[in-house]
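ok trying this again, last paste got cut off
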Amino acid sequence: MGGITALEDVKVKLHKAIVEGDIEGAVESAKALVDADVDVLQIVSEVLAPAMKVVGEMYERGEYFIADLIASAEAFRQAFEDVLKPKLTSSRSGKGVVAVFGTVRGDIHELGKNIAKALFKAEGFEVIDLGVDVPPEKFAEAVEAYGAKVVGASALMTTTMVEQKKVVEELRRRGLRDKVVVVVGGAPVTEEWVKEVGADVCGDDAFKALKKVKELLGVV
């Protein structure tokens, strides 16, 4: 039992390090979990993603500012990119499928988008990154230009989530909606919201979203 308790303590430390923007602590804790053979997907789903959700909520409540968000995002990025990502195994089942990702208009947070991008790339998808503050028209234009089969629209704040609905509406207006799998992602996104905006996949957890997208595309 001592080993399990120790690992739980490390998970708590990693969570705290991400929330507080402690890069060194985040990397150290992530390494400790990897060295103990804890599954990478589990670390991201149970620790990193929930930590960033807390950060997003604190930002919305006015307890955190842009500088705090950036610090937390950097702690997350280094723990994920430097420690966890190299341990990801890939089936390359998405080879040749184009996915377009962007953070919606009015939102400049790209952490969730970048995690999804890394995971989809690891599975062989060709990922087109539109960046942040992306208007609905740009998503639709990219689908037309690249023949994309997947669209990922990310939003960290409840105030920008409405833009995800506008992305779906723009795809529908151009006759593209039925040709793509639409993922709406971000900490505040729920299954109910996915239904409300007319999307296909809830992207609050990038790993589950990837699995669902592959199922819908038939590339499992």
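PB: full thing came through this time. Strands lie at 98-103, 126-129, 150-154, 181-185, 201-203.
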